[in-house]
């Protein structure tokens, strides 16, 4: 479902879930040549009556937290490791959040798919859950507050409503240099926050669809981000069969369709973790499809190319610095 690299320990983590072999966070210390499994797999306490269906996301800790790794799972819950993923502890504050009984699974399940660690506060963190909402903790996970003001919920039809929770978040990202700036791809549009999630502004206008899964942020320019929309919540392929990545350079006021080098006809989809940017002076952008194509832009999305051959269906695309 997702991969992440911990530069300090040079450990590569892979999070997944399988109906036969269970859910795991695997570890590699040689950049993926060989893989080992932690001694204590991610699991709910035996007396909880809960079983993990998938591990959706793995997030290494901040530079000030050597050995810390977080994992987000389905059914929505958060786990923490303090020994580079060898053992895991359940963060019970989120699981015991009072409104949990009202959370409704999305089509992909009740999944915690995004973990963002506040770079300014070691006790601060965001999580995004489909289809519950965005939560923030100020006390290291003991308590959580919804941060969803301004996001609509009408994915079942009818007039838009703006509940405290119940939005279907698909992906969220924080700008590394401006932590108050957040972007979100939602079931019901694309949104921007300029106040650390306290409020959200919809920026969907100019996109061919409000529905999509992935998004990526430019590593330096806080106003530039990328999305890859799908046709609709029922048709998970490129709108009208035309592959395009959409870029905004003005924080969502306008969008450009980037198609140079992408196939003119392609009924494919890009999954939740299938888009990434790198740290180069001209930021590279990468997208991996469910049909095995990998596309790369070395000029911030202006032009694209694909290596020869096909990969298996790609769930996660990322970049690392060695």
Brief description of this entry?
The protein is mainly beta. The chain has one helix at residues 92-95; strands at residues 2-6, 11-18, 22-28, 54-60, 69-74, 77-81, 89-91, 111-117, 125-130, 134-137, 145-146, 169-174, 182-186, 189-193, 201-202, 212-217, 225-229, 245-248, 256-258, 270-277, 285-289, 294-297.
In the residues, how many domains can be counted? 2
Structural class, please?
mainly beta
Give the CA-based shape. Answer: globular
Largest sheet: 4 strands, antiparallel
CATH superfamily of the largest domain: YVTN repeat-like/Quinoprotein amine dehydrogenase
List the helices and strands and how they pair.
Blueprint: E1 2-6, E2 11-18, E3 22-28, E4 54-60, E5 69-74, E6 77-81, E7 89-91, H1 92-95, E8 111-117, E9 125-130, E10 134-137, E11 145-146, E12 169-174, E13 182-186, E14 189-193, E15 201-202, E16 212-217, E17 225-229, E18 245-248, E19 256-258, E20 270-277, E21 285-289, E22 294-297
Antiparallel strand pairs: 1-2, 2-3, 4-5, 5-6, 6-7, 8-9, 9-10, 10-11, 12-13, 13-14, 14-15, 16-17, 17-18, 18-19, 20-21, 21-22
């Amino acid at each position: 479902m997702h991969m992440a690299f911990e530069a300090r320990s040079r450990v590569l983590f892979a999070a997944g879930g399988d109906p036969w072999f269970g859910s795991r966070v695997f570890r590699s210390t040689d950049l993926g040549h060989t893989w080992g499994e932690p001694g204590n797999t991610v699991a709910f306490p035996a007396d909880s009556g809960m079983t993990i269906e998938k591990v959706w996301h793995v997030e290494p800790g901040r530079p000030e937290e050597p050995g810390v790794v977080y994992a987000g799972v389905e059914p929505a819950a958060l786990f923490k490791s303090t020994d580079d993923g060898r053992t895991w502890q359940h963060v019970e504050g989120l699981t015991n959040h009072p409104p949990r009984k009202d959370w409704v699974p999305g089509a992909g399940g009740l999944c915690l798919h995004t973990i963002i660690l506040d770079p300014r506060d070691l006790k601060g963190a965001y999580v995004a859950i489909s289809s519950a909402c965005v939560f923030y903790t100020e006390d290291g996970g003991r308590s959580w507050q919804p941060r969803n003001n301004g996001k609509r919920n009408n994915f079942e039809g009818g007039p838009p409503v703006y509940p405290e929770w119940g939005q279907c978040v698909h992906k969220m990202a924080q700008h590394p240099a401006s932590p108050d700036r957040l972007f979100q791809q939602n079931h019901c549009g694309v949104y921007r926050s300029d106040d650390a999630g306290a409020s959200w502004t919809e920026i969907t206008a100019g996109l061919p669809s409000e529905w999509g899964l992935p998004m990526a942020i430019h590593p330096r320019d806080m106003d530039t981000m990328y999305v890859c929309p799908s046709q609709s919540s029922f048709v998970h392929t490129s709108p009208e069969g035309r592959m395009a990545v959409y870029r905004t350079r003005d924080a969502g006021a306008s969008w450009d369709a980037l198609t140079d080098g992408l196939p003119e006809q392609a009924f494919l989809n890009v999954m939740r973790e299938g888009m990434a940017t790198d740290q180069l002076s001209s930021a590279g952008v990468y997208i991996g499809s469910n049909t095995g194509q990998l596309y790369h832009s070395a000029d911030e999305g202006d032009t694209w190319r694909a290596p020869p051959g096909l990969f298996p269906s790609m769930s996660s695309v990322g970049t690392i610095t060695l």
